[in-house]
Amino acid sequence: MKCLIATLFLIVSVVTTQAQGVNEESSVRVRSVQADFTQEKQLPILARPIISKGQFLFQAPDSLRWEYFSPIHTVLLMHGGHTRKFIMHDGKFKEEHGLGVDSMQIVLQEITGWLDGEITDTTTFQVKSKEGDTIILIPANEALSKIISRIELKLLGTSGLMNSVTLYEGPDSFTRMVFSGGLLNKKIPVVRFVEP
Amino acid sequence: MRCLYLLVLVFLFQACSTAQFPPAGDLTGHSYDPELAQKCEQYYIRGSWQFVHSITFKMANGHGATVIGVTVLGKKSIKTALMGVEGFVLFEAELDAEKNFTVIRALPPFDNSDFASGLMRDVKAIFVSVSEEKPVTAQLDDGVILCRSLNAEQMSDFILQLDGSSRIHIYDADGNRIKTIMADGHTLIDGVRIPKQIQLGTYGLQAYTLKLELISAQRIN
After folding, report:
1. What H or E segment, with its residue span, contains residue B82?
2. Partner-chain contact A47 B79, CB within 8 Å
3. ipTM of the predicted structure?
4. Tens digits of residue pLDDT in A33-46
5. 3-state DSSP call for residue A194?
C-alpha cells in the first residue's frame, strides 16, 4: 500500500511540477492547480483498458484533493499535515484507515519542494530528457525502478498546465492521465481539502 | 498498510479458517439429473470474458480496504490482477490451460506465494466449477436446486434459489465448510446473466469477506 500511495503522490508531484516548470519560465508562482482528468489503465492481461474519471485540486503549500468519480468514487485529502482517504459505500463516504500516511507526507515534501524550485533531479526521480513539450523522468533508485520504469509528462503548450502524465510500470503496463479544463491560480475553498 | 499485511496473513492461515456446518441437504438416493445440473451450470460463465470489480475486503476485526480487481477468463485460462483505486498494480497472476500458475507482478505484502495461491483459489471458487464430473443433483423441499460436486480435496454445494440468486458452500475433505459464495442481483450482458454482487466469506478466527461489485463485464475474443 505504501508503494501505491507513494506512486499516487508521485503522479501528483509530477502534475504540480509540470505546472511549476512552465511557470518558472514565465515567472509566475504557482498558488493552485485544478483540473479534470481521464485515466486510462492498460495491462497486458486487459483486453480493454479501464477508464477512470476524476478531478485534481492543489493549493500551495500543502493542500490536495485527488478525487475519482468513477469507476469507484474515492477522495484523497491532504491539508494541514493530515492525510485522509474516503471511499463511497452505499451512497456514503467512509474513511479508509491503515494507509501509509507516513509515505504520503514524504512524497508531499517532494511536491512542495518542486513547487518552490524547478524541474530537476530529486532523490526520487531524475530528469532523463526534455524535448519540446515532453519530459521523461526515471526513478532515482533501483528499488523504485522495479515498480515504476518511467514517467512521461506532456505540457499543454505554454499555459502552465499539463496535457497528460503517463506512468509506466512495465513495457506494456501503464497509467495515463489526460487532463482537461485546467485552471491555474484560482482560489479554491479550504473546505474542498478537508471534507469529502 | 497494516491491514494489507493482515490480509496476507488471512490467506496464509486460510487452512485454519474452517467451521463445522452440515451440508445443505442429504442427497442419499439422488443422482445426476441433466436438467437440474444445467440450471446450476448456468451460473458459471462460458467463453472469454473480462470482468472488472471493486473488491472490498474485510477481516473479522473490521479492518479492510477497497481495490479494483480484474479477472480475465479465457477458454481454459484465468488471469487476475489487483490494483489500487488509483490504478497502481499490486498483484498480477495467470493460471494457464496447463494449470501452470505464474505470478507476473507482486508488490509487498502481496509478494508471498501462499497469498498468490490463496487468491487464485478464491478466484477459481467464484468463477470455475469445482469438478468437471457430473454433480449429484436434487430439488429440495423448499424448491431450491442443489448440485453437489466432489473432487479429491473438497466438496461444493451449489444452491440455486427461487429468486435466481445462488449460494455456493465449499467444504474441505473433513467436511468443514471453508467458504461461502453468494451471487445476487444479476444483469444481462450479451445475453449472459452476470451477477452484480458477489460475496465470498470464510470461517473461523481468521475469517474474511470479499465483496465484489461489478464495474464492467465484456465478452472478449
Report:
1. strand B78-83
2. no
3. 0.76
4. 899 999 999 998 88
5. coil
